[in-house]
Design a protein that fits this description.
The chain is an alpha+beta fold. It is built from 7 helices and 4 strands. The protein is globular and about 45 Å long. Bound molecules: FE2/S2 (inorganic) cluster.
Length: 168
């Protein structure tokens, strides 16, 4: 039986939420699609944060506590790391082919950290995603929620410098 489902507003206007919404829709907005949905969030965003968990909880009508339970039980899931800024590099197929692995290596080298880690000064957290829905702009990265397409390493490293220098 198909019922119309009024979806709560996505946390932001970021188009990547549509990927997650499609996953929930494919599962009929049933709580049984919870784990797949959280995978989808992580693949698109690189991590799970509270606004995302709240949105999924409301959309699937599952208590938020259960989502935190699932997110912390499975080691696969990464909760939003503590850095003041975040850089997510996409390692999905389209981006990989266009050299995102090398891009990630350059960022790792610059920051001195690996995927899932935060710099010692707490400025920047680094994560990877598995397709942020911008394959046409491969290789893609997201810095503080803003997608940067066709990311040449120099451009991305410069962007990171700018973001970290901003004292806001
Ligand atoms: S694979 Fe990177 S945006 Fe799709």
């Amino acid at each position: 039986m198909t019922m119309t489902h009024t979806l709560p507003m996505a946390p932001t206007e970021d188009k990547r939420w549509r990927i997650v919404e499609a996953t929930m829709r494919r599962n009929g907005f049933e709580p049984s699609g919870l784990i797949e949905t959280l995978h989808s969030v992580q693949q698109a965003m690189g991590y799970l944060d509270e606004p995302a968990l709240r949105w999924v909880a409301a959309s699937l009508r599952v208590p938020l506590s259960k989502l935190y339970g699932v997110a912390t039980f499975y080691h696969h899931f990464t909760l939003k790391p503590q850095g003041r800024h975040t850089c997510v590099v996409c390692l999905g197929t389209a981006c990989y082919i266009k050299g995102s692995k090398q891009l990630l290596e350059q960022v790792e080298k610059k920051l001195g950290i690996h995927d899932g880690q935060t710099t010692a000064d707490g400025e920047m957290s680094l994560l990877v995603a598995r397709c942020i829905g911008a394959c046409g702009l491969a290789p893609a990265a997201v810095v503080d929620g803003q997608v940067q397409g066709k990311s040449a390493a120099t451009m991305l490293l410069e962007r990171l410098d700018n973001v970290m220098a901003r004292k806001v």
